[in-house]
Amino acid sequence: MFITGPGVSGKSFQSYPEATYFYNARYRFVYAPVPKSACSSLKVILYRLQLLEQSGLPVFNKRDFGGRSFHMFMDFSYTLSRKTAVEACDILRSPDIFKFTFVRHPLDRIASAYLNKFVAERYNSEQWEHTMPVLKNFFGEKVNPFSDAITFEQFVSYLTRVPDDALDKHWISQHCFLAPDIDFHIGRVEDFDVDFRKFAKRLGLPVEAIHANQTGPSRVELREEPYWNMLPDQLRKLPVLPPNRMMYSPELEQAIRRRYVVDIDRFGYSD
Q1: Does some domain include residue 6?
Q2: Is 8 inside a domain boundary?
Q3: What are residue 204's phi and psi, to 5 degrees?
Q4: What is the chain's percent helix, strand, coil content, to nearest 5?
């Protein structure tokens, strides 16, 4: 339930989705973050905006941008969670505040989430809060994150049978993050530079678009293999991790398209 929607309950504002939205009073915008959809990149841009306006801020380097401390600092310092419910509703409903978000093709977002959380960061305990609920679904409460692992095919099977309200934020449907009665300007990760520069020009932002976690194209070409059936440690032994789309069999692609059909239709990914 969204605070800006009808039938609002008496729970604290911090428990509403809008509490995670970033607000910048100087440039008069609200950004609704969608995990695994350039979320880290946008937080870096917001951080650099604050560096221009405030002194004495914690210093984060590029290597810190994907870490928990950076995300916790940004989420605590610059979101609507610092406002009262009344103040937040006024901001969100104001026609003078530019509201925007970025979305990503579900096929790329889900594969990227798996390769990041379950493979590349498998042994990083900071990621276990995201992966353990999935692993417990397969191995029970006594799961061992060091020895127990799932393939991408198993991950997709989990997603197809678990509803959004029981999923981790990194694989919830993207439309669930957007208050339905708020008019958001939608950018797409696939067109990030073009879309963000368009937003930045409208807002008069003094920073260039960057990708905090984006890596350049790999010089290593992988041959076609059933990567969706490989366990994380098998994938980690490859010269590079497979591109997102190589993680799919035709059956898995159709399963994700059905699972995230609302996102695909709403955000124009019905190619």
Answers
A1: no
A2: no
A3: 75, 35
A4: 50, 5, 45
Whether the Cβ atoms of residue 120 and residue 112 lie closer than 8 Å to each other? no
Is the CB of residue 21 less than 8 Å from the CB of residue 79? yes
Residues found in the chain: 271
Residue 41 lies inside a defined structural domain of this protein: yes
Taking only Cα atoms into account, the Rg of the chain, rounded to an integer number of angstroms, comes to: 19
- Expressed as residue numbers, the domain containing 139 is 14-212+222-266
Q: How far apart are CA 47 and CA 74, in angstroms?
A: 7
In a domain, 4, yes or no: no
Cβ-in-10-Å burial (0-12, 13-18, 19+) of 253 comes to middle
Tally of domains in the chain: 1
What is the residue-level pLDDT of the chain in tens, covering all 271 positions? 465 554 444 445 566 789 999 999 999 999 999 999 999 889 988 988 888 777 777 777 766 666 778 888 899 999 999 898 889 999 999 999 999 999 999 999 999 999 999 999 999 999 999 999 999 999 999 999 999 999 999 999 999 999 999 999 999 999 999 998 899 999 999 999 999 999 999 999 886 545 555 555 566 789 999 999 999 999 999 999 999 999 999 999 999 999 999 999 999 998 7
The answer to whether 209 touches 233, Cβ cutoff 8 Å, is no
What angle (nearest 5°) sits at the alpha carbon of residue 11, between those of residues 67 and 80? 45
Find the Cα–Cα–Cα–Cα dihedral 220, 236, 249, 145, rounded to 10°: -160
**What pLDDT shows up at residue 139?**
97
Runs of H (alpha helix) within the chain: 39-53, 68-77, 85-93, 106-114, 128-139, 152-161, 192-203, 232-236, 250-259, 261-266
Residue 90 · residue 174 · CB < 8 Å:
no
